[in-house]
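Dissemination and training. As part of the outreach component of the grant, students in the summer workshop were shown how a complex can be specified as a set of sequence lines and then modelled as a single object. The example used during the hands-on session is reproduced here so that future cohorts can follow it. Participants entered these lines:
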Amino acid sequence: MTAHLPLGPGAEFDSIRSLLARWGPRAQGIGDDAAVVDVPQGTKLVVSTDGTVEGVHFRREWLTPEEIGWRGTMAALSDLAAMGATPLGVLVSFTVPTRWRDPLGLIAEGIGEAVARVGTTVVGGNLSGGDTFSLTLTVLGSAARPVGRGGARPGDRLWVSGNLGGPNAALRAWETGSSPSDTLRQRFARPEARLELGRWCADHGATAMIDLSDGLRAEAGHIAAASGVRCRLETNRLPVWSGASVEDALEGGEEYELLAALPSEVRAPPSLFGAAWSPIGEVVVGSGSEGGDLVILT
Amino acid sequence: MTAHLPLGPGAEFDSIRSLLARWGPRAQGIGDDAAVVDVPQGTKLVVSTDGTVEGVHFRREWLTPEEIGWRGTMAALSDLAAMGATPLGVLVSFTVPTRWRDPLGLIAEGIGEAVARVGTTVVGGNLSGGDTFSLTLTVLGSAARPVGRGGARPGDRLWVSGNLGGPNAALRAWETGSSPSDTLRQRFARPEARLELGRWCADHGATAMIDLSDGLRAEAGHIAAASGVRCRLETNRLPVWSGASVEDALEGGEEYELLAALPSEVRAPPSLFGAAWSPIGEVVVGSGSEGGDLVILT
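and obtained this result:
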């Protein structure tokens, strides 16, 4: 059921009304000072906020308006996936310069497609003017046992989802003045948050989990630093996106695959929920310094 | 207890580390992909997001960096007050141009003062570059019985907190090239979210509640529209800020007082939790059109 309160008059409300008309049942209960959300008993609230800024996270010519909305939403939802959480709702805060008013409906369409894809809804938000377009997504989720990045233990196996390096290869193409292939462009523009996989990992005793928004090397370093261990990655086992390099796969970020530490006895098929699922290394005893502690085996 | 995970390397993390050092125990549990928050059993999650954009919501010369942080945080918390909720935590998303890097610590100080003032903490956030400074605050709260704006019934009395019109008078001074008095400037720069008062109203059976960020006339119209009633306001009963006009009090927004509809039998003292508390009208039968339905008696 969609239950919106009637909104008052004024231009801001006209814009909000047109967003709500676009979202239809993909938005719920908008119109009060705050959204009211039921958090299932026995679970904890898991919440994250993520910003997409024009000229920083993308250039306008790289992405269609729908893709800007989709990508920003999936990037935020990926943080819930990395905790093993189930989405409860999304809040959308827009800063919209005049020149971005026309595509706003299509950006909202991309957000609507993304929330529908993962079975959640827009529950609130904010709309403001400003000189730079930005989109801040706050994602709410719940988990009985949220998985952080600080619990990896020596002996755990490290697994990664998907084939890595595609978004970095796409960025390199754009930044050197050429165009990525359609497949590579789609890989950058249409990420999927690995929510089902994240829950599978939580259910199978994952001791640490993180998404790859900052790239595999950096993120493995975060797990190492937070867990007080060393991560050994075997680069010859890395699943690399066709057309990308091992360097792209190791250093490139901007992708929303998961890196998880699982007890060594956990067995998994080579693909889960439509994504490749690869063992790429192990957790060993180490100093866990602030800078992380990583051994890259080539 | 402050429990932060060690962060990995990199410039973004250096900035985050310096914010965390500034906040000390006023930030908690930062460092995972998402924050984990306990929502007390028997309550609902109440959540709102609010943006403060340079050049739209304030000009840099009007406010000190601490005041930018304080005001943005209290403005967002005011939405929890208007639902009768108790804060559980705050997420802070910054977009920071190079020229704003120096004052960032002082802005964070203002945020820290505001969260400490209301007994909550920063539980997460995001930091990004960009051309325009903005601050998006997402506030999490809980309430056993959240109060929306759609439940006002004919016969209810309308109450308002504080003395109104000060922020509008301050804005008028700045916009006509003069300077507001110190007291008036403080009134704009240092609002207080009326959280205790909001909970008092919820506990006393408030049927509708809203904050005055868009001004009394507009907000009373929102209650009327959402509740399908008419609001009668008696302007000669309006508590007006010294030096402001009735017009400022009725039309000016940018202030964070509460307007509540309470059952007529509820009695209250003329001041509650340090703020004036004034009966200013009543709810009557009306059409509750989209544009609201308001009778202003002068």
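Residues 65-81 of chain A form the longest helix (17 residues). Students were then asked to discuss how this feature might be tested experimentally.
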